[in-house]
Each structure stands twice: as structure tokens, then as C-alpha cells.
Write a structure and sequence with these properties.
This protein has strands spanning about 5-10, 30-40, 45-50, 55-60, 65-70, 80-85, 90-95, 100. The chain is an all-beta fold and about 100 residues long. It has a four-stranded mixed beta sheet with strand order 1-5-2-8, with no helix packed on it. Strands 4-3-6-7 form a four-stranded antiparallel beta sheet, with no helix packed on it. About 20% of the residues are buried.
Amino acid sequence: MIEGGSIFSVGGGMGEMPSVPTNATAKQPTVLLIGLNITKDEPITICDAKGKCLDIITIPFSLRRSASLVTSPAFKLGNTYTVKTKGYEKTFTLNEPFTTIR
């Protein structure tokens, strides 16, 4: 269960894992990004709707079409965010405590 703080996890098949939160168990807004392409050592940025960068992450490996679980204390329900990597950009609105984006 995610109780707070910033988390950016990367893997495959996380949508079926029992540790993924639900709308009933998420303590802060959390998003599962399915299809995120990660290039080794390339920055992944998470920005709010005004373009303010909330976090920059680099991953020491490449993974094509990953499943990434992302949460931040800066996430607020109803707000829109963008995740960008090399060759991938996804904008989403957190309408529920746990949101899946494909």
C-alpha cells in the first residue's frame, strides 16, 4: 500500500500484481502508466499542467512498453500531468485515487 512520498517503479505486468493500489486503498493519487518506453539513462520528466517539472528520473536500463507505477505528494485529484521520455509523451488527469493510463 502506498501511504505517501514519491514512487516511480518500472516493470512489466504490474497491472495484475496484488501490490498495485485500488481506488479504495490509494492514500494519494497514483497512476499506472502502461506502454511507457524507457531508454537507458534518458530523463523521464513528470510535469504539471502549467509545465512545472515535479520530478526528473533516470533509469539505468532500457525497457520497451513498461508498466510504471507513479505517485507524488504533488499529485492532486482533478489535476492534469504529463510524463515525457525519449519518444513518449502522455498527458493524463487524475480523476480517481488510482488511474490506469494506456
